[in-house]
Every structure is written in C-alpha cells, then in structure tokens.
Amino acid sequence: MLAEAALDGRRNGRIVVLSDGALPTLQSDLGERVSALPIDWQWLGGPLDNRAIVALSARQRSSDGSASTYVYARIANFGSTPLAADVRLLAMDSCSIRAALACPPTASLS
C-alpha cells in the first residue's frame, strides 16, 4: 500500500481513508489486507457527481522550531458540471481555514 510505504519508519503513523461510500465494498476489500499501521475510515457526506479529494498531506514545519503545519490538498472534479463548494480545514474541532472553491468540469485545484 502506497500510504504504508510513505509512512515507513515513522512512529505513531496511521492511514486515514476518506470516502463518500460510493464503493460500498472498499472497506471490506481492503480490510482483509494486513497493514502494519492502523487504518482509520472516515465517511463523509454521500456520493456526488464524481468529485474527490485526490491528495491530502500535512507536514510539521520543524526547521525553525515552530509548531506550524503546512497542509496541501488537491480537489478534482471529474464530473460534467462545475463544482462550487465551501472547503473547510478543521483542526482540533474548530475551523482553521475556510475558502470558496470553484472548479470547472474535468479539472482539479490545489
């Protein structure tokens, strides 16, 4: 599994899978695979017109000793209609960042 390889050697690593449930057997299909890291399944909303968070990464800034964290997200709209939505980043159960997103059909934004 790619996520498992990316976290190789990191203490307290975990794999988080975000899904809208459009593939109902995905959890059971992957659940049969033995993983060295815990897999945390998070079900969000419901199926939409083929839109997805296709990349999500968070890295702590450590070179200057601050507690800042960089977050990268790539959102794709594989559907045939434009996507207009609010995107929120939640940290410690509070909204840290909120942004309006407008993505044309068959495109992606970072």
- The N- to C-terminal Cα distance equals 24 Å
Sequence of secondary-structure elements: HEHEEEEEE
Low-confidence stretches: none
Query: How many structural domains can be distinguished in the coordinates?
Result: 2
User: How many DSSP-defined strands?
Assistant: 7
The secondary-structure class comes to mainly beta
Quaternary status = single chain
> Tally the helices: what do you get?
2
- Using only CA atoms, what is the Rg? 16 Å
Helix content: 10-25%
- Quote the beta fraction: over 45%
Spatial sequence of strands, sheet with the most strands: 3-4-7
Q: What average pLDDT do the residues reach? A: 78
- What would the principal axes of the Cα set say about the shape? globular
- Largest beta-sheet characterization: 3 strands, antiparallel
Written description of the protein model:
The protein is mainly beta and 110 residues long. It has two domains: 47 residues, no CATH class; 62 residues, no CATH class. The protein has two helices and seven strands. The strands form three sheets. Strands 3-4-7 form a three-stranded antiparallel beta sheet, with no helix packed on it. It is globular. The two termini are 24 Å apart.
Layout of secondary structure:
Blueprint: H1 2-6, E1 15-19, H2 26-31, E2 39-43, E3 51-60, E4 69-77, E5 83-91, E6 94-103, E7 107-109
Parallel strand pairs: 1-2
Antiparallel strand pairs: 3-4, 4-7, 5-6
